[in-house]
Amino acid sequence: MRPLSLTMVAFGPFSTKQVIDFKALGTNPLFLINGPTGAGKTTILDAICFALYGKTTGDEREGAQMRCDMASDELLTEVNFSFQLGERHYHIRRVPEQPRAKKSGDGYTLQKPEAQLTCIEADGSENLLVAAKVSEATTQIEQLTGLDVDQFRQVMVLPQGKFRELLMADSKAREKIFSQLFQTHIYRQIEDKLKQQALGIKKDVEAMRNRRDGVLQGAELESDEALANELETLAPELDSAVAKKAEIDKQVQQVNQQLEQAKQLSDEFASLAQLNVLARQLDEQKTQNDQQEAQLLAGRNAKLLQPVFQAVESRKLELTQASELQQKLQRHQQHSQDSLNQSLAAIAKLPDLEAQQQQILNTAQQRRALLPQLQQLEQLNVHVSDCQQQMAKAELQGKQTKTTLAKLNDDKLTAQARVPQLKADSQQLLVLQQQISDTKHHAQLYAQWLRGRTEIEQIHARLLAAKARGAQLNTHHEQCEIYSQTLTLRWHQGQAAILAAQLSKGEACPVCGSLEHPQLAQSEQVVPTDEEREAAQANEQRALTELTNARSDYRQLKEKLKEVEQRNSELGEQLPGIDRLTQASLESALAQLEQQFAEATKAQQQLAEIENSLSAMQQQELQLNQQLDQEREHFRQREKQFNESAGQLKQLQAAIPPELVNLAALEQEITKLEQTATQLKVQISSLREQHTQVEQQSASAAAQLQSANETLARANEQFQLALSEFERQLQTSKFDSLSAFQLALVTDDEMATLAQQIKQYEQQCITNQANIAQLTAKLVDCTLPDIAAITECKTQRETQQQGALDAWQQLSGRMRQLAQTAEQLKSLDRQSEKLEAQYAVVGTLSDVANGNTGNKISLQRFVLSVLLDDVLLEASQRLQLMSKGRYRLLRKEDRAKGNKASGLELEVEDAYTAKVRSVATLSGGESFMAALSMALGLSDVVQAYAGGIKLDTLFIDEGFGSLDQDSLELAIRTLMDLQSAGRMVGVISHVTEMKEQIASRIDIVKSATGSEVELVLP
Predict the structure, then answer these.
(1) Does 991 map to a domain?
(2) Which among 890, 922, 950 is the end of a domain?
(3) Taking every annotated instance into account, which residue ranges of this chain make up the domain Rad50/SbcC-type AAA (predicted)?
């Protein structure tokens, strides 16, 4: 990845928009990022890292904390970064979460984080990869660069104070980084695939064993031997149960047949008893049957006389109806005669009614002749009243308009009186706005000063703790040094005694060569072993390393304290008397100014409103005067119309009688007269029509009465003839009287029912006697069976049958279960053998590939160890150059303790001591040189391998201050060689020699209003 341009807006200490054009630095530049402490040098690296991943290089601040406090509210904090990957260019924009001034109105709203990623093709066309989501942008960057944020920090940026992390990473962490850089995921996939296959086979084997155990448990067996033993035992028991079941089934069948025969015989005895009961019942019904036969015979005789009797009844009914009709018509004829007499009396009054009708019509015609004059009078009355109302309304409107004009004039004078004061108040708006801005800036400076003061107190506390720890470590180092020197001295002193103890008589001394040893050396103290002496030296070295690190930490804290104090001093210069300020006083002053500003703003708004109102009042006053003139003219016109109509009304009232002046009353009277005349006309016509109808009804009633009298005489004659004929035939019949005849009368349905009942009775008697004779002959030699005893016997046999069936089913089911279990076990054993054979191969491969055997090195870590050797070879060349041939980086090949992953840890070979030791023992400057060499070597090797990630950019933040003059020159020479090899290298440093030897610079200029970027080119 190669940076092209970086744009920062209100980011970190940069309060405005700052642009860095990396292309202007050259093709493969080595450049210095220079500036005073706190100016924002590291912020440039933070901006690049934030643009790519949404996090800073040190991961100590979130994106939301990177907004510049001195930035204008109108500026939105954002970072734009353009970079090149291969032949393609990319542009990413990130905006962190931040408060943003509202577009309308006062106050702030929360700006949500967003990101846009664009790919720019070679032809200049743009392809939007991510529109807004920050998580999607980060994922795309990780896919494009092949690095996550932690890996980016370790291989492309050496952040301030974190050089040792690249050296001290364990095998697991280094494996994660290297696998991304060298794209060795295929080996990890092989490991995982083998591991998954092995685990799958192992799970299958375990599942097969569990299934086998489950099969045995399901059959309630403990082992295969128990299965075989139970099968052998159950075979004869099952044969015996089958034979017993067959015998019991036969006995049950026999007793069932016996019970069926007994039930059939018992049913026949019961049927014979029921037939005898029925015979007795039929004997009891014989009397009733005889009565029914007598009733049927009498009914048939009465049937012969019934037509004559019905003729008598018919003539009697006709006589009764004719008599009732004659009486009814006689009453009707009398009523018609009465109505005719009344109608004649009414007809005599018709001349008087006709004269009254004509008189009413004449009066109505006279009244109707007055209607036109009264209608004109009514219209004049309405017009006069309307004119009066219009005059009153016009007079009222005129008064209201005058009142409105007076009030408008008062309001106008009041508004004009407020204008001078409002103008004076609104003129303070700009002054107050500037004062508020200054107060907010002072509050920001004071907040920074307070944070600095808190940080100073914290650093003082840490300095005290560091000083105390330094004293403890110094004492501990002195003790370790004295102990190591003492052991070394005792070891040297004891060598002569050890040599003397090994001499034999006649053997030459290895020191002097003498064959005689008259006085052998002796040691009064215990001579320490080599292991004890080396352990003491190692303890001394560890104590020295801890002491050195503690002193380095103490110096860094002192420098940090000086930096923070300098920053607070600069803040004090920007805001004199800052130490006497309080947060409450600043907030109170700001609140007071904001209140005054709000009042001035309100005054400005009120002034504009009053000026607009005065203009509107003048326009309204002109309109009201015009309206008043129009209302006066309207009143004069209405007054003239009123006078003319009133004169006409007075003349017309004099020509009409006073009692007929009311038009509505006159119209009502005319309508009433006409209605009365119409009613009289209808009454006369009705009387004449009624008289005609009454005459006709009277004649009709007389004729109907005559006809009814004749019909009544004929009906009486017919009745007497029919009655004589019936009495003659009754005397010759078998009935003694009329009542006996009527009692014997039955309907045809009743006669049919009686005949059917008699026939059924006779048939029942015949059938019952035949059935009794048949059953008596059949049961002559039989006795009634004992059903209860036979049923009890059947129950006992069925109980025995169920017991035999249960025993057979239990044994048979168990035999089937055992046979199925044996077959399942054989099938599972065959499958288990296949799985165990597979696991013997795949499991071994998985253990080897995943580093579970031997030296605990996995397949991917083995491949990466080879690649790491290449990286260390390149890194050692640069480290030897910078350390003047003293140090060389090596890969630790010893196995780690326990189950910890190993194979990728680092060691350093010290040419001065000819020993190999941990990289943790390197000093701060040595660690920086080693980390720098490691980063450069890693960059070389990654790009040399096909498929690797291209690392053609490196940023180094500080670290050079820990080098001596010679090491610094060697480090600069190494960076220049790296530039010649086609790399971009950016260095952040305060070291003066760096500024003198690196011509291209990005200078950060610090000021009270925020830092700015200047590009310095040779």
Answers:
(1) yes
(2) 950
(3) 5-263
